Amino acid sequence: MRILITGASGFIGGRAAAALLSSGHEIVPCGRDQKRLQRLYPFAQAVACDFAKDTAGDWSGRLAGADAVINAAGIFSSGGTNSFDAVHVKGPRALFEACASAGIPKLIQISALGAGEGARTPFHLTKREADDCCMKLAAEHNLGGWTVIRPSLVVGQGGQSAALFAAFAALPWPPRLGDGTWVVQPIHVADLAHAVRLLIERDGSVPPVLDLVGPAPMTTDDLTQALRRWLGLPPARAFPLPERALRASIPLARALSFDALSEDSLTMLAHGNTAPIAPLAQALHWTPREIGAALACEPATEAALWHARLFFLRPALRIGLALIWIATAIVSAFVFPLEKSMAMVSGLGVSGWQAAALVYAGAAVDGVLGFALLLNIRSATIGLLQLVTVAIFTILACLTVPQAWIDPLGPLTKNIAVVLATLVMIAMEAKR
Q1: pTM assigned to the model
Q2: Based on the domain organization, do 194 and 246 belong to the same domain?
Q3: What HEC string does the chain produce?
């Protein structure tokens, strides 16, 4: 079958694409970054789309020859063109309308558990709006092969929620979220992808809505400990992290780009994220694996442990480097005696106002680069600029104050550590 997949570069879409490819299907990866998709799937013809702008007419040509469509596009946080309304409602509606007009016999809308009648968060409410549109069009056009699947918490390498829980698990004392009674019913991403393949390959009609959950509910403590075992770490005592403290940390989490920790995700956890397993087992004649068994089938690598341990250190490293640059700018411009600074740059053959201008220019460069890094503006690029700046300043210092190399406080030798830390930061912040 020829299957168009939106969100094919994402966590769920990518695993669904892999499962379908392994079964011999042809995929058409579709997303906003066509070049990246083409790199990920060099054997396929990637297609560009933009959920924020595309209409049903824009989709008609893209659907030519397609036997099925999977919508795996979704976001955890809303902002700019990546708003919940654009990605979860407007874009899918245009896609579904085009699929209905083209008579696409099979379509899977990947939604989320909690997007049903009890939906209460912007994430779930917008997912539900798209789900309702999908089911309405399927009924109007008698398309029995269309279905909405609503996964619970999806666990696996590459997922934002799984990464956050793995980071919790890797801490010396894993946090107990809320009062310790929050319940989830996680499904491994490989099992979710398998379910998608079963639905695509199934003859005849499919259930209009299907909850995809693991075989049994478990507390968030149980999930954290399961991930800790997967990482190869020994059991550890949990420390309590009340819901009030979690919600108070959301602004900081948003500033640090921890999208998995949000009002929506905490509301979901506090109200439970479970569903009966029987409808899924009856519909597909198959049951997902218990999460511990599923994790054991994809053993954690050393890279997975590194990722978990560096999860919270990544923004800390960026912010720490930013503060060093900002502090250097402040000290150079306002604290350290200007006369001494001018004396140090006099070795370059400048004096008077030229020397003062050079001192203040250097402080300005430090400040601009520091604040850009603090605000997370193209951090990898800023890091490269900082490396160039350190190299220039070091060369100038060698010309003007070479004795600084043997200063016991190491004003120049510390640049070695700063350069290495910056290289690590660039490696972690650079986008694919």
Answers
A1: 0.88
A2: yes
A3: CEEEEECCCCHHHHHHHHHHHHCCCEEEEEECCHHHHHHHCCCCCCEECCCCCCCHHHHHCCCCCCCEEEECCCCCCCECCECHHHHHHHHHHHHHHHHHHHCCCEEEEECCCCCCCCCCCHHHHHHHHHHHHHHHHHHHCCCCEEEEEEECCEECCCCHHHHHHHHHHHCCCCEEECCCCCEECCEEHHHHHHHHHHHHHCCCCCCCEEEECCCCCEEHHHHHHHHHHHCCCCCCCCEEECHHHHHHCHHHHHHCCCCCCCHHHHHHHHCCECCCCHHHHHHHCCCCCCHHHHHHCCCCCHHHHHHHHHCCHHHHHHHHHHHHHHHHHHHHHHHCCHHHHHHHHHHHCCCHHHHHHHHHHHHHHHHHHHHHHHCCCCHHHHHHHHHHHHHHHHHHHHHHCHHHHHCCCCCCCHHHHHHHHHHHHHHHHCCC
